[in-house]
Input
Amino acid sequence: MKLFLSQIQDIDKMPYYLNRLGELNIEDNNVILNYQLSGNTSNKGIGGGLTIQDGDALGSDVTFRIGSLNTLTDSDLNISEYTNGSGYTNLGFVTELNDIVLQNSSTSSMDGLRVIKEKDIINGGTLSGETAYSGSNRYLKFLVKSSEQTGVTPSVSDLLPGELMLNIADGKLFTLKGGSGNYEVIEIGSSISNNPSSGTTSGTTSTGTTSGTTSTGTTSGTTSGATSGATSIQNLTWVSPYGTGNEERYPAYGLYDYSHSMFIIRASEIGSGSKLLHGLQIEMAGYNGGYTYTNQTIKLAHTSDLEFGDNVKVDLTNINNITNLTTVKDNFNWTVGASGFQTIDFDTNFEYNGSDSLLIIWENRDGNWNSGFGWAECWFDNTYVDSWFKYQDNSYPSGYGTKDLSYRPNFKLNY
Amino acid sequence: MAVDKINLEIELNNYGNVVVCDENNIKSFIVVVENIITDVTTIKTIIDGYVVNDFQVLKDIRLSDGKLKCLYVKS
Output
């Protein structure tokens, strides 16, 4: 016997009617809402599930299925608590639509819409026997749309449709904002002075190899403490604009005994807000395995300059308003491994102030040259003079060098 | 066609002592000659004749203290 809900005039009495029924038992394990006698259900083999049918007797109705999929292996999940003794209890939610819209009318409560609970995973793998990663329909993608808000400290209520907010384990809230093509992670509740612009930020770690064994050589360069402790490490990574140009001379030039290179990254690229930098990554390629530069030193500083001007010298002459010059990694041996981002963890952190440009100074005091060197993958831009270099044999360079309008290595800053 | 490194080195040895004359990596070729007894243009002309078919761009050339170093890369 079919039960039509429309026959129940007073919806508030539903529990009463259901109580009278004792239970609602759908023998074919299907619930179809708005079912029409003329409706086409021939292609709705949904098993245990629910169908919302528009009654036009055509396809493309909305179907849902809640049931055990049992397609994931132990290694797929690697979370033992998902095992219930009879297979995995990962339950599926399936629609025939391309989009799923979850809406919460309340912006005052973070509990208003709960999609994923703690330790749940979002599985981009297979659902029912498809070959894993075999096609475009199994890649998991999130569309994050930036807002147009300027100079406003974001809060939950600032989120617009399409924006993403993340609530991480330590209770801090982050959102993604920025201009077209460029996004920045902003901690909710932190103060910002202007609208974040270029530069991307991600919380992912690189796949590059780690190098930078500290040697026992002498210390060189001026060091001043730039870390005040006011900013903590957030385990985030700022990613510079990315390019595919090849520059052998950056950050160290293997064809010469010594080289000195400098790079400017503007505040408009890094984004506002202080950041405690604890490492950098630089994308390298073309190196023969095991190529090592000895006696490398990296220094960071603030400068008011947006680019390198004229008559800059190795000793930083004519770079304006340099402050907090800090040797973050001193006299280390740098082995360039496989192509990709190479990570250098600092020995001394640097607190970037969020308003000045960041000056990166790379001193190559190896004292020898060897073939087999590669290149830095670089971003090409003819707008600012972002890079500067000088190199020579026999002794460390001094005096004037060459400014580079075109190329700057692809950097990541760990903070 | 690969660079004829043997004959290039023989020619360059007439003007100095060849230290390196070889592919540096998959994209570049380096030549280093010490005790140069001629000018940069002469050396460059010789190297160009052998290298530019495979490594079209002269990225760096410098003669300092009698030592010439040059780096050619693929375009």
